[in-house]
Design a protein that fits this description.
It is built from 13 helices and 5 strands. By secondary structure, it is an alpha/beta fold. Bound molecules: adenosine monophosphate and magnesium ion. The site of magnesium ion has 3 residues, from loops.
Length: about 300
């Protein structure tokens, strides 16, 4: 497990005004780590990841069996920050039956004809399951805030100033509170990548023919809005990190760091629910004994 203190530093306290430059996207988060050296820390991270993945499989089985809670994982980030890799690696050990992933793209005409939370509500995980939102309703206060012309498709009543976004944050907080009160554990991860690291990853996609498919010209166009996105992320993190659904700012310049940290928070989160396998009633126990007797007599 990663030290609680380290994870606590990544959790955004409710009401905090977030400045992303205060969060280091690199691996050397503390002088202690820096002193240990990259290779040693990387090796330790691999061990922690492995232990967490093993525990995660057990935790998921318990989640499924107890059928009282669901987990909603929300992933938000700039392009190339590693959302897909997190999903692929962190969920590699879980039972696919108890897990679902939704990747949200531009809303359809049908989506647009409803309130902005509608399309996400339909994809929420049922009890016993882990649901992953690869992008989410947060896009409606991120890409839509950076490109407010996207709102033109929606015939929304009211004005569109700063108050408009405040109300969206309030709606999101209330929506998440509702989910938590109904047994959903919400874990929100902002994968924090530096502008330099994004450039390196884009170049890698352009230079390696096997990765060409990963590059979209739209990614470069969005990179030009880096500062606007940073501001939108800061506003969103400040307004929507709540006691019931806090944000974690995950250092994402090294994939091995982000994967280890996310796996750790996820396993710790499920364990914190103190789930128990369902108790078998006296009646059921008698029925089981009867079934065994019948089979024995065959
Ligand atoms: P990708 O995840 O790379 O496949 O890209 C999905 C694209 O859909 C991104 O450019 C997002 O900004 C965009 N997108 C996701 N949700 C929304 C939304 N609610 N409104 C507008 N664009 C969105
Ligand atoms: Mg993309």
């Amino acid at each position: 497990m990663i030290k609680k203190k380290t994870i606590d530093q990544m959790r955004v306290p409710a009401g905090k005004k977030v400045r992303l430059r205060d969060y280091d996207p690199g691996w050397a988060q503390t002088p202690e780590l820096k002193e240990a050296g990259k290779e040693a820390v990387k090796q330790r991270a691999a061990e922690i990841l492995e232990a967490n993945l093993a525990e995660l499989a057990t935790a998921q089985e318990l989640l499924w069996a107890s059928d009282s809670h669901s987990i909603l994982i929300v992933l938000q980030a700039m392009d190339a920050a590693g959302k897909d890799g997190i999903i692929k690696h962190v969920m590699s050990g879980v039972n696919p039956q108890g897990c679902q992933v939704f990747s949200f793209k531009k809303p359809s005409d049908e989506d647009i004809d409803h309130n902005f939370l509608w399309r996400y509500m339909r994809c929420l995980p049922e009890r016993g399951r882990i649901g992953i939102f690869n992008r989410s309703y947060y896009e409606d206060v991120l890409v839509v805030k950076v490109h407010p012309e996207l709102l033109d498709r929606q015939k929304l009543p009211g004005k569109r100033g700063e108050g408009f976004w405040q109300k969206r944050y309030e709606d999101i907080n209330a929506f998440e509170h509702h989910l938590v009160r109904n047994g959903t554990l919400i874990l929100k991860f902002f994968l924090h990548i530096s502008k330099d690291e994004q450039k390196q990853r884009f170049l890698e996609r352009l230079e390696n023919p096997d990765k060409h498919w990963k590059f979209s010209e739209a990614d470069l166009a969005e990179r030009a809005f880096w500062d606007e996105y940073t501001e939108a992320f800061e506003d969103m993190l400040s307004a929507t990190s709540t006691k019931w659904a806090p944000w974690y700012v995950i250092p994402a310049d090294s994939k091995w760091v982000s994967r280890t940290v996310v796996a750790d928070i996820l396993t710790t989160g499920i364990k914190s629910l103190h789930l128990k396998f369902p108790k078998v009633s006296e009646e059921k126990r008698t029925a089981l004994a009867e079934a065994k007797k019948q089979l024995d007599q065959e």
